[in-house]
Amino acid sequence: MFEWWEVLRSILGKGLAEIVALTAIALAGLIANFFRKYIYGWYDYSRRLKRALASVSRVEAASGLREGDGLWLTKPIEDAKSDAFIAALHASKVLIVANAKGGVGKTTTAANVAARLAELLPKSVLLIDLDFQGTLSAMAAGPEGNWVPAAGTDSLATHLISGDLKPADIINMSKPVASANNLKIITSFYDLAQAENRVMVEWLLGDRKEDIRFRLAKLLHSTLIRQNFSLVVIDCPPRLTTASIQALAAGTHLLIPTVMDLPSGEAVITFARQVQNFKGAGVCPHIKMIGVVGSLQPPVGDIAPAMMRINDRLNDVRDSETGQKVVDILDPKTFFPTSTYFRNAVSNGGIAYVAMGNERGEREVKEKIIALADHVKREMNL
């Protein structure tokens, strides 16, 4: 095997032969590095770009082009199938409060239900604000508080969806909610919008060694979080953004607030179908829908016709395997009305349930919140 080396030495001499051999080895290394860095790198980039374009492309249908499944359903799900993940999820309690439509009381519902449950549960309740508008963060900060990140820093929610935080960080960095016992919050701000776009691009063009859809799930279902919090309540934005997808993947239960009118009802039906698609694809295979709750109802007007129409349409949203209806409208006793108490809480900072006293009007609103929170508590076996 060394014949070539002996021939080279006989022709060039020992010293020059060694120089030529070392030069050849170095040149081979440079060529290999060039192919790895540029040729394979370009191939890998082209492959990822093609995958990204396929994720967002429209598809052919009988009626013409239509939108495809979307960028979040483009890869087989493995993280949610492991026995360890399923066991951790069943041991945890994570309530998602979400809807695809804005202005229907999601934040009001999340804040007030969490405040009520914090009075009842043995360990703290953790609120997570994943809407970059930060309304929940402002309410939790109270009139004297400040939830806005310091100059040159990002909000906790940005670090959360980016995978920067460990379970101990959530425990140490979450902030107490003003005037509420047993209640803490992870705050958000407008930097979260850019973070969601960045993480989405990472998902489209990254190597996908990590499934970013399950970043939040792995964090919230950790032993340390379960040991410190009885419940996690996540307020989602009215869009299926990166933060919403991570929340759904982490959720054990889903509550859908809505105003009981026909436009809002159509949003509920669309959202319920989307959740079922994600569930069937494995993004949130274990989530349970608690139901649709009426929120911010006007003091006058008959909501029965809208309720009947929405309920009829929800009959079409069924489990693909069992054929069973997946979500119902809750008992109207759990609906809470639009109220100056809620508006004042948003305007002045604070959570209405915490701020209200025992006057007649306040007591009536609190009873609605208590009824809804008690229903959630039973459904989640808290």
- Taking strands numbered 1, 2, ... along the chain, how are they ordered across the largest sheet? 5-6-4-7-3-8-9-10
Q: Count up the domains.
A: 2
Strand content: 5-15%
State the helix count: 16
The count of β-strands is 10
The CATH topology assignment of the largest domain is Rossmann fold
Structure class: alpha/beta
Tell me the major beta sheet: 8 strands, mixed
What would CATH call the homologous superfamily of the largest domain?
Answer: P-loop containing nucleotide triphosphate hydrolases
**CATH architecture annotation name of the largest domain:** 3-Layer(aba) Sandwich
Q: Name the helix and strand elements from N-terminus to C-terminus, one letter apiece.
A: HHEEHEHEHHHEEHHHEHEHEHEHHH
**Share of helix, binned:** 40-55%
**What is the CATH domain class of the largest domain?**
Alpha Beta
Apparent shape: globular
- Calculate Rg over CA atoms: 27 Å
Low-confidence runs (pLDDT<50, min 5 residues)?
none
Average pLDDT for all residues: 85
From the N-terminal CA to the C-terminal CA, the straight-line distance is: 74 Å
Please explain how this structure is put together.
The protein has 2 domains: 54 residues; 303 residues, P-loop containing nucleotide triphosphate hydrolases (Rossmann fold, 3-Layer(aba) Sandwich), CATH 3.40.50.300. The protein has 16 helices and 10 strands. The chain has an 8-stranded mixed β-sheet, with helices on both faces. It has a two-stranded antiparallel sheet with strand order 1-2. It is globular and about 105 Å long. Helix 1 crosses helix 2. The chain is of the alpha/beta class.
